[in-house]
Amino acid sequence: MRAGLPLAARGMRIGLLGGSFDPAHEGHVAITEAAMRQFRLDRVWWLVSPGNPLKARGPAPMAQRLAQARRLLTDPRIVVTDIEQRLGTRMTADTLAALRRLYPGVRFVWLMGSDNLVQFHRWDRWKRIAATVPIGVLARPGSRTAARHTKAAQVMARARLPLSQAGTLAGRKPPAWVLVNLPMSRQSSTALRAGR
């Protein structure tokens, strides 16, 4: 195992929430806690990305974003990481491939807000991502309905699980995904940056 990477044992169910976290906020915490409950996860790793290829502007420095995210959290099951920076990966498909090699037997679940599902078909090798790990989609304001009708949702329609089976997601063979409704938080990193 490489230095600085989180520990995980074979059989653990770990959610992966990627993003710039610029800055991390209570909305991230709320969807993480909901994901742990709904998908019966042992841990959630926040993958603080070096940068987002779909965003025009670069994020705040990595050290600042990591420190701010860690100050926000109190649950030791939620781990803030700079895995992509340590692995030298920028694309989710590459990060997932590396994590599966480094952590054999760990049951990873990719977590995303419904706002990300709306643009998922624009991600690099998105179909490979869907074929690599199950995906837990968490409703976000303004995108819950749109997410159900996106190109990605239509392509993956047969792999969608009913909400009643959300707790089985980590043990499912991909492709598998489920959309979970939760109490809405309108907080966003974009709005918080604008208020600085």
TrEMBL record:
Highest taxon listed in the record's lineage: Bacteria
Family recorded in the similarity comment: Belongs to the NadD family.
GO BP annotations listed: NAD+ biosynthetic process
Class of this enzyme: transferase
Keyword Chaperone among UniProt keywords: no
One of the record's GO molecular function terms: ATP binding
Domain Cytidyltransferase-like: 16-194
Keywords for the protein's UniProt record, in alphabetical order: ATP-binding, NAD, Nucleotide-binding, Nucleotidyltransferase, Pyridine nucleotide biosynthesis, Transferase
Catalytic activity: nicotinate beta-D-ribonucleotide + ATP + H(+) = deamido-NAD(+) + diphosphate
SUPFAM superfamilies, per database record: Nucleotidylyl transferase
Function: Catalyzes the reversible adenylation of nicotinate mononucleotide (NaMN) to nicotinic acid adenine dinucleotide (NaAD).
Protein's name according to its UniProt entry: Probable nicotinate-nucleotide adenylyltransferase
Cleaved signal peptide residues: none
Cited PANTHER family: NICOTINATE-NUCLEOTIDE ADENYLYLTRANSFERASE-RELATED (PTHR39321), PHOSPHOPANTETHEINE ADENYLYLTRANSFERASE (PTHR39321:SF3)
The protein's Enzyme Commission number: 2.7.7.18
Listed NCBIfam families: PRK00071.2-2, PRK00071.2-4
Pathway: Cofactor biosynthesis; NAD(+) biosynthesis; deamido-NAD(+) from nicotinate D-ribonucleotide: step 1/1
Matches recorded under InterPro entries: Cyt_trans-like (IPR004821), NadD/NMNAT (IPR005248), Rossmann-like_a/b/a_fold (IPR014729)
Organism: Paracoccus lichenicola
Pfam families associated with the record: CTP_transf_like
